[in-house]
Amino acid sequence: MGGLARKASIIDEETLKGNSVIVLDSGDLFFSKSTLYADKDNIDEAKIRAEIIVNCNNEMDHSAFSPGSRDFALGLAYLKKLKDQSNFNFTSCNLFHQNTSDRIFDSYAIEDINGFKVGYIGAASSFQKDSILVKEPINEIKKIDPSEVAGIKLFLGSSTGKMLIDNLNSIENIFSDITNNFETIIGEGQSASLLDDWGWIGTLTELTTTDGYWIVMTEPDSLHIMGEYINPNIIYNLHAGPNLISFPTAGSVGISEGLPDDIEENIIAIMQAGYSAINTNDGWQGSLLYFEGLKGYWIITDFVLRFF
To answer: What tens digit of pLDDT does each residue of 216-254 get?
Structure first.
């Protein structure tokens, strides 16, 4: 109950501030282990606790839930009973009935929140359970028809945890739609190339929001990426010398205005695709005037820096 109380308190605090709150759960919500046994565990107590969790989350206007392995501790039939008692969506794109290959839950749910359409995709990590088939999550997410969720902000609920997020950030996943024209991606001190008959070769395996990248294409192409909002408090760690970093936000800002005052004097120069600016005694000089959203920059420093 302590976890539920903390969750309710946070929701109340944000609501009082006038913020809209979306409550999601990535699985293992109802039980503390994957299997409960009648001769070893207090089944009645476990059921009471699970139903209390359902009722509390109903009161908190819970939006979506992606079942994990522990949620099946009393079997699929009981989990479906909890679903019937819930006011929130149960979603999972990769959980299927073993015998029929039918999906157990909807892959995703969509609701309108303050005029915005928000979608929730559920995916579970691998586990074994009688009568349940767990398919590879990334492949099942890719099978969702993009036209069904076009223009909708999506949150990924998954008990796969960091493994799934890492796979979503992998170069193989991000560039899967433009592989016909893709040649090489270059980051700071690492790179990867896509070779016929070999696939991806190189030391760069996944992308991060703080780093910048050069991409070499054989022909022009368009890349559409669906994801979450960038954390506005993202932290950059720069070493002395050249650093290839991102500017992952919309809009633009002047070079001096975009740098924290306490580190600006340690920035020697900034370069970006044919443009550059040098930090002089008379201020910034050169053809590069602004940081622009969704572009990468080489920042040359004379000191180890940390800023956000």
So the answer is: 888 888 887 665 556 667 788 888 999 998 887 778 899
Torsion, Cα of 61, 63, 69, 70 (10° steps): -10
- What's the full length of the chain, in residues? 308
Chain segment 13-69, per-residue pLDDT in tens: 888 888 778 888 888 889 988 888 888 889 999 999 999 999 999 998 888 889 988
Q: At what angle do helices 43-59 and 76-85 cross, to 10 degrees?
A: 30
Contact 178, 225 (CB under 8 A): no
| 3: CB partners within 8 A, 6+ apart | none
Query: What is the 8-class DSSP label of residue 91?
Result: B
How far apart CA 146 and CA 92 sit, in angstroms, is: 17
Phi, psi of 262 (to 5 degrees): -75, -5
The letter for the amino acid at 299 is I
Distance CA(208)–CA(170), nearest Å, equals 9
**Kind and range of the H or E element at 56?**
helix 43-59
What is the C-alpha separation between 212 and 246, in angstroms, rounded?
A: 4
Please name the residues in contact with 158: beta carbons below 8 A apart, sequence gap of 6 or more. 26, 27, 66, 122, 123, 124, 125, 137, 164, 165
Angle, CA 228 vertex, CA 4 and CA 258 arms, to 5°: 115
Provide the H-helix boundaries in 94-211.
Answer: 137-142, 162-168, 171-174
Cβ contact 96:137 at 8 Å: no
User: Exposure pattern of 28-44 as b/e (b: 16+ CB <10 Å)?
Assistant: bbbbeeeebeeeebeee
